[in-house]
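Quick start: what a row looks like.
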Amino acid sequence: MSKQKENTYDGSQIQVLEGLEPVRKRPGMYIGSTGYNGVHHLIKEIADNSIDEAIAGYATKVCVRILADGGITITDDGRGIPVDKHPKTGKSTLETVLTVLHAGGKFGGGGYKVSSGLHGVGSSVVNALSTKMIAEVSQKGRLYRIEFERGAPTTDLKKMGKTDRPDGTAITFYPDPTIFKETVEFDYKWVVNYLRHQAYLTKGVYVQVDDERTGEKKAFYFEGGIQSYVKNLNIGKEVISTAPFYVEKQIEDSIVEIAIQYNDTYTENVQAFANNVLNPDGGTHIVGFRSALTRTMNEYARKNNLLKEKEDNLTGDDIREGLTAIILVKLPDPQFEGQTKNKLGNPEVRRYVEQVMNEYFAYYLEETPAIAKKIVNKALLAARARKAARAARENVIRKGVLDGLNLPGKLADCSSKNPEECELYIVEGDSAGGSAKSGRDSRTQAILPLRGKVLNVERARLDRMLNNNEIVSLIKGIGVGIGDQFDVSGLRYHRIIIMTDADVDGSHIATLLMTFFFRYMREVVEKGHIYLAKPPLYLLKGAGNKKTYAYSDEERDQLISEMIEERRARGTNINLEDSPIRQAGLTDIQRYKGLGEMDATQLWDTTMNPEHRVLVQLKLEDAEVADAIFTKLMGSEVSLRKNFIQAKAKTANIEDLDV
């Protein structure tokens, strides 16, 4: 055998990427993905700069215009990016900002005291990932313009002459389809949602979005800022106080803003922001807020004899039941975890938030004793419910992950112990459950039949839930626990598939189950483990016992049309006076009323076989919108649901909810 040729490894094989090349080479490192989310992240990078001008007090208006030709223009009336010659690069400051990574006014040079961006890569990254970018700056009555292609300037900075525009910046860009292969089309609703949030978080700023493609327009202006935000989150819920608690306080070089309003639900909705950036994983501001809230509430309850001497202190969970709160901190040097900014790490922020809450929320409770008493009494009820649920909860939470302890008796488990390949079918009814058990792949597919409709957890505390056999079976089978013992690492099945009849009752059961998962196992939803099975509506029977399935009325009609055309192409004589069924060569069409009408083989072929089945994965793209939808459709306010049904029943879909 000849000796294998040695591989050469020297300096010639080390690639050095210059300028914006790294961005185009590894775009995911800078914007997270090159799919739908990545395209829209580009908008955020540019618009955040405009919002920073508003936070700093220099801009009052931010406009986003989705262009008919596929581009987007973001305009503000701030100071305008400087156009003078930059001392380090020798180019205009505008060109420097748009072509040099880590160039910007957010590194302590006096450009911004507070900003949402801190890496200085936003504008240049957008430029690098766009086929074309046009930047226009108006300053002191003069207009300046520069153009780029894929991050490289195609013109010098041009003085366009005098202008009537107010001072500010306008950035137009076109996402590069060679980078964003999935889509380069902007979602109007995403833009509207993003700008609405920014308007809430920056009180007094006017934001507007125009879609040239459809003519749709929306504008937002909230003088109340996060107070308006909290009120919006509580729409459809009975609130304890009409006006939210609100405080804004500067401590050292940072600002703490907090708005609080309690409602009659059993879950909390607390959102934390740092420099207008949502921190979904919380951080030091959340830690400080929770600590101070618990301490202040217990001190008030003890002082006013609402909590008896022998009673234990209220827990944080007790106190936060029904709480809606927004915490917004503005600080000069935010320490986020990663470019996605999911969690705030500044240790001093915990002290700032605690100080503000301890002082001002205590004042609020003392000055509004009637409201304070209602809040404490709600927490006391939550504490009693927690104690009542403790014994039941310990009975249903699995002690082991895969050892089979405490599994519900009606669960037909799978033989595999690898959660990644295991599936749990939650099936409506014992009849369909029997067919599913007979037809399944018993190695990877588990079946849990449910009898009747499960409890609507939107209107029930945990203690009541744990008295419901169907809910208890779900908790036992899934393996993640519930309440303060929830742990997603115990998940026994990486696909949890809701399989109900394709009728009104089946849809209601599916909605009740989705409500349960969203309210009490949200992380399971967020990680993409929940699916809806889509069983067929029709069985089309042909000659020779040939069977074809249709999953909607439209698919049924399309299949019949295709069968007629296929027979014509073969030269078959077709009598146009016959029914479409006979013209298509069919002997019968069966409309399934429920899963129980299918035998085990049919259920496997149509709804459970991974090669043929249709599954719809539940995704939580906007928890705030989802919360509003569940409140509207599953909450105690009948008029909201009634008005929706009367107005939208014939065309109901998520877009019609107007939340």
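That is the whole record. The chain has four domains: 21-220, 226-392, 397-535, 538-591. The chain has 21 helices and 22 strands.
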